[in-house]
Amino acid sequence: MINKIQSLNLRTKLMIVILITSITPLLLLGFFTFQYISSVLQEEISENELEKLSSINNQFTYFLKDIEQMTLFFYKNDLIEETLKRDPARSLEEKYEDYDKVNEVFETIMGVKDWEVDIYVIGLNGDRYFSNEYLPNQYNRIRENWGILRKANEGQGTIVWDTNYSVNQLDTKEIVLSAGRLLVDSETNEKLGYILVDIHESALSSIYEENNYYNRQQFFLLDEQGYVISGQPDKRNVGTRLEADYFDRVMSRDSGFFKFEWEETPSILTYHTASETGLKLISMIPLNIIEQKNNLIRSLTWNLALLGIIFSAWLAYFLSKTITQPLYKIMFLMKEVEKGNLDVRFDSKFHDDIGILGKRFNRMLRQLKVSIQESYEKQVRMKDSELKALRAQINPHFLYNTLETVNWLARLKGVEDISKIVVSLSDIMKYSVRKGEDFVTIEQDVKQLQNYLTIQEYRYKDKFDVQVHVDEEIKDERIPALLLQPIVENAIVHGLENKMEKGNISISITEHEANIKVVVKDDGVGMNEETLEIVNRKMEEGLAMEELGIGIENVRKRLFLSYGDNYSWNLTSKVDEGTCIEIIIPYKEG
């Protein structure tokens, strides 16, 4: 897999890298942003739901306080008190009059409040008054140890509340909560009867029904014992004790919210307890309802991420094309160069890295073209030189034959000195014009020097003596040809020729720190400091030196061509003491 990726072209690699480095952060950012916003939205909805439950619970509290005030009105009403103190055996006409009067009180109360409640005034004297069309059987016959009546007796005139419990969850409970208060004679404090109020479930559900703005949201209103007083929209649990895993957690705290499984559906449960009434209101919201809002966030997040991906893809294509197109152009030009076309050029409008590469490519082509031209011209000159050399070989061969004739004539005449000079001169010429040998052994170059000295002995007679020392172990090492003879010739001509008395030349070739050290020293007339400084400066700058002649200049040039900067040259001289040239060169391989 890695090898396949590495084998892709540069444009594809750049697109892959740019896409990966841009899309990956976009996807991660989109994912974590959505998760964070979803969590914040969920918590915010739960907080808002808790505030809503608190508001609804306050409405329940106000409603129950109104019920309490209504019962207190009956408790302190003189008409009700006088009516309940009447003789049970009074005439029907009197009872009817009392009914009209109490009914007017009912109409006054019910006309002010639009409540779904039933009001009952139950007298111990047998009077029964009610606001609806019939009297429930449990209120017709007074059982003071039963339900709301027992609590009213225990309350001694204070309001009491009683939840209407259901044995069967399938029972339809219209009356879910009852309020009661014991009615007594204001003077004697003797019991006269009861004021009872039955509250319909619809009276309670209508309070929070308007706030149910979520589909499939469930409300429960519980009393202090955990019995369901009201439910919306599902009312099957009304009148029963709520049994669930979360029941203890809800009943042990005043308010809060948490996630749970409601009817196998992930949901959020929010609950709030009214501080005055103790009623606990619960709402259950399936998470998928909240996620409907998350869908908008999800769509927005992923749409933005998709736009980012599209932009990244376009940017990757644009950048890869911008970067690689000039490279492909250079590659095309290189193919043209391979075909032999050196006149191509790379045109760049920018001064970036590719532009610099293109300029250097153009410079390389110009230099290459010049080098090829120079190489061609050099080859032409070499051909011409070889032709000239072939033509020049005619003269040396003629000279060799002539010298050989002189040598035999000298020997026939018995003139050995002439014969030796002619033989030495012939060997020198053969050594000088040999072809293809730039390097010779030290032994060969010393032999060439001996031929030269043989001729000079006849010219200068006893003018000087020459001592030559060569370390035996380095005599087969290779040095540039004609290295010694020009230096010795310079010592004779410039050092010893003008000396009045006999002179000496010493030549030493030794091993020196893994190098070859050549020292040529004479005791001739020497040079003064000014002349020596001029000579050394000219040698450093490569200038012609009339003071020493063309031989020394030639030696210096050949040493530089042979060894570059890996050799050393030291020329010292004093007036009337002589001159010394010291050369150190490395061993030549091969």
Automatic annotation (TrEMBL):
Residue intervals of the HAMP domain: 321-373
Molecular function (Gene Ontology), one example: phosphorelay sensor kinase activity
GO cellular component, one term: plasma membrane
The protein's name: Two-component system sensor histidine kinase YesM
Membrane-crossing segments per the record: 12-37, 300-319
Keyword set includes Transmembrane helix: yes
Enzyme Commission code: 2.7.13.3
Locations listed in the record: Cell membrane
